[in-house]
């Protein structure tokens, strides 16, 4: 449905339906001045704004659409490890053991940050699942599970628990493609739209201003400040935080150009399943789960007994490509949960994720733009990472912490792709290869 000025605001997601009417902030009209202007009203931008408002700065959050319109209102709701495509052993190779440990601890802190907020704010976000179950999509992954569990215990101080196929079935986790499991003891599931709305309410309560339907179309230096141009106005600010993630306009500012490929993830949610349907499939667990494919599937039984099933791997945003992505997602679901083939999909939607050539996120200053900072590139897992990193980027902007206080894995600005016009082709090639390898 179009918004007040003709901008479509509905995603068609289950999350929107679950919250009913969504509060809409005014759009920015005319000119305004703030200490800090934040671009993007998702977890990262709102977390930054909250921190800044609590520190006494005047702050605005500008969103091209509205709070949670980006990935923060349309994700799978897995509050878990993430932010990178590198495994722990890759991190150790690239950054050394101490930095890899620092980054893993940061991810745990990020999950705890969300949990603490929910408790402190008494936010009901339909929370469930103690930790996350990784599921071996073929028997050969079981050996990798054992190696991973041993590595995590030796170097990172925690040990995920291994489950055989039979033990999984006893826990209500069964399917023809699940050959064993590795339970990671961190993380939980939530309704992402309820969380992002609760976060925005806190920003407003602390005096931060949020503007919806306010796209920033240019950022220019104005003496020792920055001038942000919008269709119906402008904002002057001493500091700017970029938090557009997969929805960022890659020319605002120019620095972003050619640095992120256009990647997507899609979700289907079924109608509520009956007890006998759950029993027929053998899936009754409320644990959130993902398989071991590189182009992974993520899934969970929602508190109201609907099943949420997510797929990675979309590139093109044409109607035809999007239809094909949804059809592929549903076909994967039918294959992995054959007893539910007859169960109708009631909601399906997709969204942009932000990947980089470096495969790591960035939280730090934008090179050659004094006073402009970026917190983005969560590689498809940003509920926890964007929440904590929003606070960290605010602390950096305020001079309360230094870049060296953050893990090295998130301190390097992401590189531009060579021949950026070929990014879709690169990604298509990578997805073909991963799809083949994942079989
Ligand atoms: C389908 C899907 C499933 C996912 N599942 C999970 C999951 O289960 N667990 C998990 O941890 N992560 C998941 N993710 C990723 C996670 O949702 C994101 O990493 C996270 O929400 C990013 O938050 P953010 O605040 O950085 O950006 P976003 O929430 O994407 O917000 C960016 C905002 O910036 C605005 N914006 C951009 N450019 C401008 C501009 N020039 N002017 C004004 N506004 C602008 C956009 O309108 C948008 O609202 C998923 C993502 C998708 C798409």
TrEMBL record:
GO terms for cellular component: cytoplasm. Pfam families: DAO. Signal peptide: none annotated. InterPro entries: FAD-dep_OxRdtase, FAD/NAD-bd_sf. The keyword Oxidoreductase applies. Gene3D superfamilies: D-Amino Acid Oxidase, subunit A, domain 2 (3.30.9.10), FAD/NAD(P)-binding domain (3.50.50.60). This is FAD-binding oxidoreductase. PANTHER family: FAD DEPENDENT OXIDOREDUCTASE DOMAIN-CONTAINING PROTEIN (PTHR13847:SF281), SARCOSINE DEHYDROGENASE-RELATED (PTHR13847). GO terms for molecular function: oxidoreductase activity. Residues 35-396 form the FAD dependent oxidoreductase domain. Keywords: Oxidoreductase.
